[in-house]
Specification:
The protein is α+β, with helices and mostly antiparallel strands and 185 residues long. 22% of the residues lie in helices and 15% in strands. It has a domain of 48 residues.
Length: 185
């Protein structure tokens, strides 16, 4: 659904009137994690791929030619119409790539044409094995205050455990000594 900020989701008709493209797939009880990847290239269109059957194998769910606004909003909904279901979004990652001017193809009227040219990622991003943008590896120095906080939290937890163990040992020793003394009398 390409919303305009005013159009409401049609619950009775499962939003069929406002649907741009769709596919249906049984995603339950799979051996791999179920994932979806949405890719948009200005002037080329929108594509949704699903990761369902094998690791690192993506199958195209749908591909449609559409131009999105320059600053679109991305939203997720678990609305299922009349049926009831449960969906969890574990994580969302967004990336932006820029095609260098020397690789941009333009056609009549200055419109950008589909092309197969090298794409350069924005500064700071990395690329994964399959050529899609990936997360930049984090080092311990880039975690900053969070890393130190977790370190001190773990250290305090370890000290509390040791203190509890020592207190339990001393308490047990005192009980054992008092039992022996009472037996000797």
């Amino acid at each position: 659904m390409l919303g305009d900020g005013q159009t409401k989701y049609d619950l009775d008709g499962d939003n069929a009137a406002h649907e741009l493209a769709a596919c249906s797939e049984n995603f339950r009880r799979r051996d791999v994690a179920t994932k979806a990847r949405l890719s948009y290239v200005h002037g080329q269109g929108l594509q949704v791929q699903l990761h369902l059957k094998e690791w690192d194998k993506w199958e195209t769910c749908f591909q449609t030619k559409i131009d999105l606004p320059d600053n679109p909003y991305l939203g997720f909904s678990a609305v299922t119409g009349a049926l009831s279901d449960n969906h969890d979004i574990v994580s969302v990652a967004t990336y932006s790539a820029t095609i260098l001017p020397q690789f941009r193809a333009t056609g009549p009227g200055g419109k950008q044409q589909p092309l197969a040219a090298p794409v350069v990622a924005n500064k700071g991003s990395t690329w994964s094995r399959d050529g899609a943008p990936g997360r930049k590896p984090t080092s311990s120095s880039s975690r900053g205050a969070t890393g130190w906080f977790l370190f001190f939290l773990k250290a305090i937890g370890l000290l509390a455990f040791v203190a509890f163990a020592v207190a339990a040992y001393v308490s047990c020793l005192k009980i054992c000594l008092s039992v022996r003394r009472s037996e000797q009398r």
